[in-house]
Amino acid sequence: MKNYVIHDLPDYFKQYKKSIKNPKKFWDKIADENFVWYQRWNKVVKFDMEEAKIEWFKGAKLNITKNCLDRHLAERGDKTAIIWESNDPNEEAQYISYRELHERVCKMANVLTELGVKKGDRVCIYLPMIPELAVTMLACAKMGAVHSVIFAGFSASAVTSRVNDCEAKMIITSDGSYRGNKAIDLKGIIDEAVEKTPSVEKVLVVKRTNTEVKMKEGRDVWLDDYYPKASADFVTKIMDAEDPLFILYTSGSTGKPKGMLHTTAGYMVYTGYTFKNVFNYKENDIYWCTADIGWITGHSYILYGPLTNGATTVIFEGVPTYPEPDRFWAVIEKHKVTQFYTAPTAIRSLAKESSSWVEKHDLSSLRVIGSVGEPINDEAWHWYNDHVGKKKCPIVDTWWQTETGGIMISPLPFVTPTKPTYATLPLPGIQPVLMDEKRNEITGNQVDGNLCIRFPWPGIARTIWGDHQRYKETYFTAFPGKYFTGDGALRDETGYYRITGRVDDVIIVSGHNLGTAPIEDSINLHPAVAESAIVGFPHDIKGNALYGFVILKETGESRDKDHLRKEINMLISDTIGPIAKLDKIQFVSGLPKTRSGKIMRRILRKIAEGDFSNFGDTSTLLNPEIVDEIKDGRIN
Ligand code: WT7
User: What atom in ligand 1 is closest to the CA of residue 410?
Assistant: First the structure.
């Protein structure tokens, strides 16, 4: 595995330099030495950043599932590929070997073929976290169909718009799903969604909850009526490097969701390489990422990255707090998990519970712990480090996006010294640059600006499905010649990066640029505070003033709220400066969050402004009911 494993800090700097000096040679070797191909490429990379046209490994022929499954059969056929852990702790876990997974994928590919799916067709998958989710995705990849997984928490109308956007021929769903103590009628949601999706010919239904569902004659079929009879022989489709692998929708700041298109070869190479290094993956590890496969984190780091490396990956159906708030810790102990990868929002919610929930489990198997999805605040970082990692496991704070396909900026465990709240250094091949509003590059250290990437990397999304113009405008026009991430970042004196949040979250108060994340961090330092979000609202003199929405650990009606407000502002004053003090502080019981855990600041901004006219699309909110509560409690 030459050029694949980074051993120590000097090696990182050496590899990084090589990757920047000659990216073609760098990726050529990695692709060549670590993956199986039917045919080599004629060109490593070809790109035009103005037109947003990017191609990697052009001319190569491959199938990603040969790399995920077939090639492991000889050496690790009996090794567990997937450990499936049910929502119900009393239901037995499944241990699916590479051989069995390969067989299941081949059978599934035959079922899909029989039902009319062909190479290039789009298949939407709306399933809970059960093995069939992985199996159907891999079956699509094996036959050259393009999967588009829709997180099985989205509403019917969100499903309809995605299915119509990619004109899917088939939807794969289940009768129902379990989440904690709730059972959800997935098929019912799909029935409603497909009323307005003319492209859908078949709905394939997996049994999970054994609940009664309506089946529409000629359209809906049970997997159980096809799968047992299906042959386990399937001839893998030979794909071109740039053939589409999947579409995954991500919400834009406005308008309809963007169908990010990822293609085959570059995505495979990039997720494989980054998985190996960022998680310090070793042959006998048990790796667990708690994300849902319906998000890019699940695609890249539950499925494709781990499987191309021949790893054992855990798929967990449940939620962190069921049956009790120690489920994560119980699962780590049960399966002797070595790498644990989760989101700051989960960390914060579990840190709110008594630490005895963590202490009662043996977490000594852990070697590396990771964070993804949003900036991890100082308090959450330390709680994670102290209670979960026991100060022995490096925290990999991984910055990346649906669009980037894989991790871009992250510490490498046992290589990069970590620093709380810093994603630290770019991975080899990644060239971050900070740009100011006038489109000039900001050089030097201890500066902050708009985070852009200078040179393409293999995992970058190639387009927005059906709308290349939007792709170009969203990512390649603000800073010509560069990919614009939409995030702000700060570079410290050692060259480490700290992601400060979405650039649209920057609030200018009296001419000062203030990032929301550091202010929230300092509010969260207050012992009574569980979580907070701040937004700007128009102010006659300052231009903008700050409005804080604060969740307290205990509702404590008895507490003197005005006194608390003063203390919070003193903290901000002390940690950031009086300029960052909040004009208004409203105590709330929750924040409007998307299902991926992001605060929908657009709604908070409107409430702060006192504009209740139109909150826009709230279909992706996990807790829409909170909006009214916050609105009613707004401070004038
Ligand atoms: C946005 C991308 C990448 C998979 C999950 C989210 C934010 C992501 C970090 C991090 C600070 C982070 C950024 C980014 N983000 N990871 N480690 N530190 N911010 O994918 O839904 O496409 O969101 O999430 O703002 O742009 P996504």
Answer: 17
Phi, psi (deg, nearest 5) at residue 519:
-70, -45
Neighbours of 399 (CB within 10 A): 26
Other CB atoms within a 10 A radius of the CB of residue 192 amount to 14
Rounded CA-CA distance 151/82 in Å is 20
Return d(Cα 563, Cα 187) in angstroms, integer: 51
* 469-495 per-residue burial string, b: 16 or more CB within 10 A, e: under 16: ebbbebbbebbeebbbbbbbbbbeeee
Handedness of CA 215, 216, 217, 223 (dihedral sign): negative
Which of ligand 1's atoms lies nearest the C-alpha of 291?
A: 5
For ligand 1, atom 2, the nearest C-alpha belongs to 401
* DSSP helix/strand/coil, 44: strand
**Is 506 exposed, middle or buried, given 0-12, 13-18 or 19+ CB atoms closer than 10 A?**
middle
How many residues are recorded in the chain? Answer: 636
Q: What is residue 266's predicted lDDT score, i.e. its pLDDT?
A: 98
List the strands of the sheet with 529-539, edge to edge: 529-539, 543-552, 584-588
pLDDT value of position 251: 67
Q: What's the CA-to-centroid distance between 568 and ligand 1, angstroms?
A: 27
Phi and psi, residue 589, nearest 5°: -95, -10
Rounded mean pLDDT, 564-578:
88
Whether 486 is in the pocket of ligand 1, judged by its Cβ within 6 Å, is yes
Does residue 488 have its Cβ closer than 6 Å to ligand 1? no
Distance (Å, whole) CA 142 – CA 235: 8
Q: How confident is the model at residue 616 (pLDDT cuts 50, 70, 90)?
A: confident
Instruction: Decide: residue 452, CB within 10 A, 0-12 exposed, 13-18 middle, 19+ buried.
Output: buried
* pLDDT attached to residue 636: 80
Distance of CA 201 from the midpoint of ligand 1 (Å): 35
Q: How far apart are the first and last CA of the chain?
A: 62
In sequence order, the β-bridge partners of residue 94 are 84
Count of C-beta atoms within a 10 Å radius of residue 377: 24
Confidence (pTM):
0.85
Q: Is the CB of 374 under 6 A from ligand 1?
A: yes
What is the arithmetic mean of pLDDT over 361-366?
98
- Report d(CA 340, CA 368) in Å as an integer: 7
Q: What is the pLDDT of residue 619?
A: 79
- R_g (Cα) of the chain, nearest Å: 24
Can you say whether the dihedral through the CA atoms of 271, 594, 159, 190 is positive or negative?
A: positive
Q: Which residues contact 611 (CB under 8 A, 6 or more apart)?
A: none
CA of 284 to the centre of ligand 1 (A): 29
Q: Which residues of 6-17 are buried (b: 16+ CB within 10 A; e: fewer)?
A: beeeeebeebbe
**Percent composition of the chain: helix, strand, coil (DSSP 3-state, to 5):** 35, 25, 40
Give the model's confidence band at 129: pLDDT under 50 very low, under 70 low, under 90 confident, else very high: very high
Measured by CA distance, the residue closest to atom 19 of ligand 1 is 374
| CATH architecture of structural domain 510-631 | 2-Layer Sandwich (3.30)
Measured CA distances, 17 to 26, 398, 430 (Å): 10, 21, 11
Ligand 1 geometric centre to CA of 65 (Å): 27
Domain ranges of the chain: 510-631
In this structure, what are the phi and psi dihedrals at residue 402, rounded to the nearest 5 degrees? -50, -40
pLDDT at 255: 45
